[in-house]
Amino acid sequence: LYDGRLAPSVDDVRALAEPVLQHRMALTFAARAEGTGVRDVVAKLVKGI
């Protein structure tokens, strides 16, 4: 239970997305060569929430 609630809020998901997903993502060589980082990918994902 996060912060005493039974379900996470959208803000909770946004706040925890990067630290939770950062170590789970593997970028392609092309993405790394373009300078795209995991933070960039997570930021795009979170924007869609």
Compressed to H and E, one letter per element, the order equals HHH
Approximate helicity band: 55-70%
* Domain count: 1
Strand content: under 5%
Number of helices: 3
Uncertain spans:
none
Quote the average pLDDT.
89
Alpha-beta classification: mainly alpha
The tally of beta strands, per DSSP, is 0
The profile of the biggest β sheet is: none
Tell me the span between the first and last alpha carbons: 21 Å
Radius of gyration over alpha carbons? 13 Å
Shape verdict: elongated
Overall description:
This protein has 49 residues and is mostly helical. The protein has one domain. Helix 1 packs antiparallel against helix 3. The longest helix has 12 residues.
Which terms summarize this structure?
49 residues; mainly alpha; 55% helix; single chain
Structure at a glance:
With 49 residues, the chain is an all-alpha fold.
Topology:
Elements: H1 10-21, H2 29-33, H3 38-47
